Amino acid sequence: MRPSQRRIEQAVAAAEALAAQRQPAICVLCGRPIPPEARSSRHHLIPRLKGGTHKGTVRLHQICHSAIHARFSEAELARNLADPESWRTDPELAAFIRWVADKPPAFHAPTRMTRARRAARKQRD
Length: 125
What we know:
Elements: H1 5-21, E1 25-26, E2 33-34, E3 40-44, E4 57-61, H2 62-71, H3 74-80, H4 84-88, H5 91-100, H6 115-124
Helix pairs in contact: 2-5
GO molecular function: endonuclease activity
Protein name: Restriction endonuclease
Keywords: Endonuclease, Hydrolase, Nuclease
């Protein structure tokens, strides 16, 4: 038995009403909302390579997620940066947060690690 057109329209209206009430997610790094059209991802609080597969994730704008991984290695994240508050205390990430704060919620730009940081990381690892 096929649903009637009226039932379909009611179901669509109900789904749209629920979607309109839903609050957008908030990025735990920059504090800006993450609208549905924004590029976003989940960040493992403890990197999966360091045993954090089932230890929890947080939702971030993709640009914020990229900034974290451009600044810290997996080992540094696992060792002493397993909570968002510790990310905000880093001077470089604090400068990034101030820079991105006035950007639109769906803003995205490529984030790259600097050559100097890449060379230093190679020497450390």
